[in-house]
Specification:
The chain is an alpha/beta fold. Helix content is 34%, strand content 19%. The protein has eight helices and nine strands. The chain has helices at 20-27, 64-74, 93-100, 117-122, 139-150, 163-169, 191-194, 198-216; strands spanning 2-7, 32-37, 50-51, 61-62, 79-90, 104-109, 126-129, 183-184, 187-188. The strands form three sheets. The protein has a five-stranded parallel sheet, sandwiched between helices. It has a two-stranded antiparallel sheet with strand order 3-4. A two-stranded antiparallel sheet has the order 8-9. α3 (93-100) packs across α5 (139-150). The longest helix has 19 residues, at 198-216. It starts with a strand and ends in a 6-residue tail after the last helix. Bound molecules: ligand 4FV. The site of ligand 4FV has 16 residues, from β5.
Length: 222
């Protein structure tokens, strides 16, 4: 998979995507990731990317010209152009799986008060939000989405790393997990997990996952 990111803060991407699983996916060539500075698609000496909103109102908006030029430069037939903004579909594991099936993602990070509407109307194939809160710009949302999608690419996760994905595919939260010591300061691991009776263990885990989901996320059970 190829992912291109368009942002005003390319330096923010150094670090989080150079570690662990995403780093490995890039090293193995499973993921080709490129971060582009939106200002590189401007032609005035102030590298202008924003302007005041018509009709007045607070703040600035991202202008159409640099973003149209960048998408026309970086995009192709197989490209899925995705805007990152609080007005988008709420990103979740199902959408992560959907995106992991694509060949090329072009993530456009929001900044200021947002995008000129013509960007949304004419360029975007999709719009995603990582949650109902406002962050400074779209860089962190882009990194969250890149991380969640990369984990789902074939061959990226070893067998021992993949269990968590199933949980959300079963629309259930994870059951309680324990590791050694079996008794830590008098806090004991449930006997069933020490029993070696795998049928009983599986039943206990299913009951716990459902119980936890009913208590914390009944919306997942709808
Ligand atoms: C956001 C979100 C988000 C809004 C103003 C950047 C900010 C500024 N993006 N999911 N939540 N974006 O808060 O994706 O443009």
């Amino acid at each position: 998979m190829k992912i291109d990111v368009l942002t005003l803060f390319p330096a923010m991407f150094a670090g989080p995507l150079d570690e662990s699983i995403v780093q490995r996916a890039r090293k193995n060539g499973v993921l080709e990731l490129a971060v582009h500075n939106l200002r590189d698609y401007t032609h005035d000496r102030h590298k202008t990317v924003d302007d005041r909103p018509f009709g007045g109102g607070p703040g600035m908006l991202l202008k159409p010209e640099p973003i149209f030029e960048a998408v026309e430069n970086l995009g192709g037939e197989k490209t899925r152009v995705i805007l990152l903004s609080p007005a988008g579909r709420k990103f979740d594991q199902a959408i992560a799986r959907e995106l992991a099936a694509q060949e090329h993602l072009l993530l456009i990070c929001g900044s200021y008060e947002g995008f000129d509407e013509r960007i949304r109307e004419n360029l975007a194939d999709d719009e995603l939000s990582i949650g109902d809160y406002v962050v400074t710009n779209g860089a962190l949302p882009a990194m969250v989405i890149i991380d969640a999608v990369t984990r789902l690419l074939p061959g990226v996760l070893g067998d021992d790393e993949s269990s968590l994905d199933e949980s959300f595919s079963r629309e259930l939260l994870e059951y309680p997990h324990y590791t050694r010591p079996a008794d830590f300061r008098g806090m004991k691991v449930p006997d069933v997990l020490l029993s070696g009776n795998h049928a009983e263990i599986a039943k206990w885990r299913a009951v716990q996952a459902r119980k936890r989901t009913e208590e914390r996320r009944p919306d997942l059970l709808k």
